[in-house]
C-alpha cells in the first residue's frame, strides 16, 4: 500500500489539531535552503517579534496614559461644564461606546488582514479623538466661577458682603431679592457650556474606536508567533507597561490640576480660589494635547512591521508521526499558523462570522468567565473612576494631590502585581486550573482586606447650615433654608451662592453674607471679612470677628486615618493584580486557537458594553444622591456638587464596589465546576487522538511489513526460478 495513500485518507482537521505548528519546518528549511538561511530567518523573526513587542507596549502606554488622564479630569470637567457626576460618567463611558461600534468586526476581520497596520490606523484615530476632547477650551469663553465678592473700581475697599446695609427700604422691597435669582441677560446667550461637553463626548467615542484593534490583535499576534513558554511572560510585560501608563497619566493630571484653566489670559492675583476649592478648574485641556501627541507617535512603528512571522518550532504537541509531518509539509498551514490567516474575500469571512460566534458562545467555560469578568469590571471601573473624587471629598485633599497619590502610590502597586503574576505563572508553570485557582485566591484575599476601608472614616466638614446648624447642634441638613439664621437676618443673602469663608471659630460658612460679615478688605485670596456676626452666635464672645476666603482646614481625624487608607490601598491593589495575568491566560487557553482573536474581541466588547459604559453612570448617579449642596449655573439650573455627605458617600461608594465583587465570587464556584468538566473532556479527546496516532503507526508498520513480504516473495520466486534453470541445465 503506497505511503501517500495513507496520508490522504487522514482527516485534515485531526492532523491540524495534532500538529498545528510544524516541528519539521526548521528541518525542511535546512534541507532546501541551507542551514544559514534558516538561521537568518529565525533571527529576523525574533527581531521582528521584539520590535512588535516594543511597539505594542508603547501603544498600550499611550492609550493607558490618555485613558487615565480622562479619569483624573472627572472633577475638572464637572466644574467646567457645570454637570453632575452621572453625566461625567456618560462622558467617561463614551469611550466604551466607540469600542462597541466596531470591536467585533475589527477582531474578526482584523485577524485575517495586516494586523500591525490596522493597529497603526487605530492609534491615529485615538490621537484625533484626544485632540477633539481639548477643543471646547478654545471655543468657549473664560471660566467664571460663582462668587459673591465684588471689588469696587480703583479701590482697595470692597463692597459690603451684606448688601442690605446699602439699600433703602424701597429697594429692599423691590430689588433685594434679585440676588436669589440667576441672571438671564445677554451674557447668558453666549454661554454654550451645555453643548460644549458634547465635543468631549464625541472625542472620547473616537478614542474608543481607535483603541479597538490594539488589544485583541496585538495580544493574538504575540500569542501566535511567540514560543509557548514565553507568551504569558510577554503578555505580562505588555500589561505591565499598560499599567505604567496611568502613572504618568495621573501625574500629568496632577500637574495640570494645579494650573488655572485660563492660565496666561487672566490676572492670577484677582483669582480668589485655590486648587483645594470646590470651584477650582485646572488646565484640563493641556494634558489632552500632550496625550494626543504621544498617541500619534505610537502609530509610527506599526507601519513597518510584517503581517506574519515564521512559526516557532516548539509550538504544538511534542511529537508528530512522519505521516502527519508529511501531510503538513504539503499544507498551506506551513506559511501561516491558521487557515483563517489566509487571504479571503470579505463576503466569505462574513458568512462564517455568525457560525463562528455561535461556536464561541457554546463554550460554557468561556461564557461563565465572561459573566465573572463583567461583574468584577463593573466594580473595578466604578471604583477607579471615582477614587480620586473619593479622596478629595472624603479626606479633604485637592484634585492635584489626589491624582498625584493615585499615580505614585496606587498605580505602581498594580503594575508590580501584574508583572509578578506573569512571572510566577512562568516560573510555576501553572496549568489552566492552577491559574484559575491562583487568580481566585488573590482576588478573595484582596476582598477581605478591602472590608477595612469601611472603618477608615472621616467626619463631615463643619459647614454652618449644611452639616452643622447655626445653633451648634450636630446634624446634617438637606434644607437650603437652614443656611439662614438670626445672625444673618439683617443681610439679603442668596441661598444659591457658594463662596465659602472660614471663620475664626473653625467653622466654614457658605458665603460671607451668610456668615453675617459686614465689611471686607484686601483683594483676591488675601481678602479678609470683618464683623462677622454669625461667629459670635456660634460661640465666640465679642470682638472684631473675621473670616478668610476658602474652606477651613480639613479635619484632624482625617489626617490620622488617611495614611492608613493609602497603605491598605497599596496592599490590596498589589494582591488583587497578582491574579491579572493568570486570569487572562485562562481566557486564552480555554478556547480553540482559531477562535482566539474573536474570543478576545468579543470579551472586550462584552465587558466594555456591560461594564465600561454603565458602571461610571450608575456609580455617578448614586454618588449624586449624597450631595448636600449643589452649585448654580450662571444662567439658571443646577450645576456641579459643592459638598457631599461623606458618611453616605463612603457607604454608597464602598458598598456598591464590594457588593458587586461578592456576586462575582458566587459565579466563580460554578466556573470551577465547568472548568473541571471541560478539562476532563479535553483529556478524553487527547487520549482518543493519541490512540488514533497509535493506530496510524500500526498501519505504517503493517505497510512496511507487507512491502517487505512482497519483496521477500519476489526474491524467493526469482531464486527458485534461477535454481530451476540451473537444474535443467
UniProtKB/TrEMBL annotation:
Start-end of Polar residues biased regions: 31-42, 707-721
Keywords: Cell membrane, Disulfide bond, Glycoprotein, Ion transport, Lipid transport, Membrane, Transmembrane, Transmembrane helix, Transport
This protein's GO CC annotations: basolateral plasma membrane
GO biological process, one term: sodium-independent organic anion transport
GO MF entries: sodium-independent organic anion transmembrane transporter activity
Compartment(s): Cell membrane
The reaction(s) this protein catalyses: L-thyroxine(out) = L-thyroxine(in); 3,3',5'-triiodo-L-thyronine(out) = 3,3',5'-triiodo-L-thyronine(in); L-thyroxine sulfate(out) = L-thyroxine sulfate(in)
Region (Disordered) residue spans: 21-42, 707-729
Membrane-spanning ranges: 47-65, 86-106, 118-140, 231-252, 285-305, 366-384, 404-424, 436-456, 561-588, 609-631, 651-675
Taxonomic lineage of the native organism: Eukaryota, Metazoa, Chordata, Craniata, Vertebrata
Sequence ranges assigned to domain Major facilitator superfamily (MFS) profile in this UniProt record: 52-680
Domain (Kazal-like): residue spans on this chain: 481-536
Matches recorded under Gene3D superfamilies: 3.30.60.30, MFS general substrate transporter like domains (1.20.1250.20)
Gene, per the UniProt record: slco1c1
Name of the featured protein: Solute carrier organic anion transporter family member
SUPFAM superfamilies, alphabetized: Kazal-type serine protease inhibitors, MFS general substrate transporter
Biased composition (Basic and acidic residues): 21-30
Amino acid at each position: 500500500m503506497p505511503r501517500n495513500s495513507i496520508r490522504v485518507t487522514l482527516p485534515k482537521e485531526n492532523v491540524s489539531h495534532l500538529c498545528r505548528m510544524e516541528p519539521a519546518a526548521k528541518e525542511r528549511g535546512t534541507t532546501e535552503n541551507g542551514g544559514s538561511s534558516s538561521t537568518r530567518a529565525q533571527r529576523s523573526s525574533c527581531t521582528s517579534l521584539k520590535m512588535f513587542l516594543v511597539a505594542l507596549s508603547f501603544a498600550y502606554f499611550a492609550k493607558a496614559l490618555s485613558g487615565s488622564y480622562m479619569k483624573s479630569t472627572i472633577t475638572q470637567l464637572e466644574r467646567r461644564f457645570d454637570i453632575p457626576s452621572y453625566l461625567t460618567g456618560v462622558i467617561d463611558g463614551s469611550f466604551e461606546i466607540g469600542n462597541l461600534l466596531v470591536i467585533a468586526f475589527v477582531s474578526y476581520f482584523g485577524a485575517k488582514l495586516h494586523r500591525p497596520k490596522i493597529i497603526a490606523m487605530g492609534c491615529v484615530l485615538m490621537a484625533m479623538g484626544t485632540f477633539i476632547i481639548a477643543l471646547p477650551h478654545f471655543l468657549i469663553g473664560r471660566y467664571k466661577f460663582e462668587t459673591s465678592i465684588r471689588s469696587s473700581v480703583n479701590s482697595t475697599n470692597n463692597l459690603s458682603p451684606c448688601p442690605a446695609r446699602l439699600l433703602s427700604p424701597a429697594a429692599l422691597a423691590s430689588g433685594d431679592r434679585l440676588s436669589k435669582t440667576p441672571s438671564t441677560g445677554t451674557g447668558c446667550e453666549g454661554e454654550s457650556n451645555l453643548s460644549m461637553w458634547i465635543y468631549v463626548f464625541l472625542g472620547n467615542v473616537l478614542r474608543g474606536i481607535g483603541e479597538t484593534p490594539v488589544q485583541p490583535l496585538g495580544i493574538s499576534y504575540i500569542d501566535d508567533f511567540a514560543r509557548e513558554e514565553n507568551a504569558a511572560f510577554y503578555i505580562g510585560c505588555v500589561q505591565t507597561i499598560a499599567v505604567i501608563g496611568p502613572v504618568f497619566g495621573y501625574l500629568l493630571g496632577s500637574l495640570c490640576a494645579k494650573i488655572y484653566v485660563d492660565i496666561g489670559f487672566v490676572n492670577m492675583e484677582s483669582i480668589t480660589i485655590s486648587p483645594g476649592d470646590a470651584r477650582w478648574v485646572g488646565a484640563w485641556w493641556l494634558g489632552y494635547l500632550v496625550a494626543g501627541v504621544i498617541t500619534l507617535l505610537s502609530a509610527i512603528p506599526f507601519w513597518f512591521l510584517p503581517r506574519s512571522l515564521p512559526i516557532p518550532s516548539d509550538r504544538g504537541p511534542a511529537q508528530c508521526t512522519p505521516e502527519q509531518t508529511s501531510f503538513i509539509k504539503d499544507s498551506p498551514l506551513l506559511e501561516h499558523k491558521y487557515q483563517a490567516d489566509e487571504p479571503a474575500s470579505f463576503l466569505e469571512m462574513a458568512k462564517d462570522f455568525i457560525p463562528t460566534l455561535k461556536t464561541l458562545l457554546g463554550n460554557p467555560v468561556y461564557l461563565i468567565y465572561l459573566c465573572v469578568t463583567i461583574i468584577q469590571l463593573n466594580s473595578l471601573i466604578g471604583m477607579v473612576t471615582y477614587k480620586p473624587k473619593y479622596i478629595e471629598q472624603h479626606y479633604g485633599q485637592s484634585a492635584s494631590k489626589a491624582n498625584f497619590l493615585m499615580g505614585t502610590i496606587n498605580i505602581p502597586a498594580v503594575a508590580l502585581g501584574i508583572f509578578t503574576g506573569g512571572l510566577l505563572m512562568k516560573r510555576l508553570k501553572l496549568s489552566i486550573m492552577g491559574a484559575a485557582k491562583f487568580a481566585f485566591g488573590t482576588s478573595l484575599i484582596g476582598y477581605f482586606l478591602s472590608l477595612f476601608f469601611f472603618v477608615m472614616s472621616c467626619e463631615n466638614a463643619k459647614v454652618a447650615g449644611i452639616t452643622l446648624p447655626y445653633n451648634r447642634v450636630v446634624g446634617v441638613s438637606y434644607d437650603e433654608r437652614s443656611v439662614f439664621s438670626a445672625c444673618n437676618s439683617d443681610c439679603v443673602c442668596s441661598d444659591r451662592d457658594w463662596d465659602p469663608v472660614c471663620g475664626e471659630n473653625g467653622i466654614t460658612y457658605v458665603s460671607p453674607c451668610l456668615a453675617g460679615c459686614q465689611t471686607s478688605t484686601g483683594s483676591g485670596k488675601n481678602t479678609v471679612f470683618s464683623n462677622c456676626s454669625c461667629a459670635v452666635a456660634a460661640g465666640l464672645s465679642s470682638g472684631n470677628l473675621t473670616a478668610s476666603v476658602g474652606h477651613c482646614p480639613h479635619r484632624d481625624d482625617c489626617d490620622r486615618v488617611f495614611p492608613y487608607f493609602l497603605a491598605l490601598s497599596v496592599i490590596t491593589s498589589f494582591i488583587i493584580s497578582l491574579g491579572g495575568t493568570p486570569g487572562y491566560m485562562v481566557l486564552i487557553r480555554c478556547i480553540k486557537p482559531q477562535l482566539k482573536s474573536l474570543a478576545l474581541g468579543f470579551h472586550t466588547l462584552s465587558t466594555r458594553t456591560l461594564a465600561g459604559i454603565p458602571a461610571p453612570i450608575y456609580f455617578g448617579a448614586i454618588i449624586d444622591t449624597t450631595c448636600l449642596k449643589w452649585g448654580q449655573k450662571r444662567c439658571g439650573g443646577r450645576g456641579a456638587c459643592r459638598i457631599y455627605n461623606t458618611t453616605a458617600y463612603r457607604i454608597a461608594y464602598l458598598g456598591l464596589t464590594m457588593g458587586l465583587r461578592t456576586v462575582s465570587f458566587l459565579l466563580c464556584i460554578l466556573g470551577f465546576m465547568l472548568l473541571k468538566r471541560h478539562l476532563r473532556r479535553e483529556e478524553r479527546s487527547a487520549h482518543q487522538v493519541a490512540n488514533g496516532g497509535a493506530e496510524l503507526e500500526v498501519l505504517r508498520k503493517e505497510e512496511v511489513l507487507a512491502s517487505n513480504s512482497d519483496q521477500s516473495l519476489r526474491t524467493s520466486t526469482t531464486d527458485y526460478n534461477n535454481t530451476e534453470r540451473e537444474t535443467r541445465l
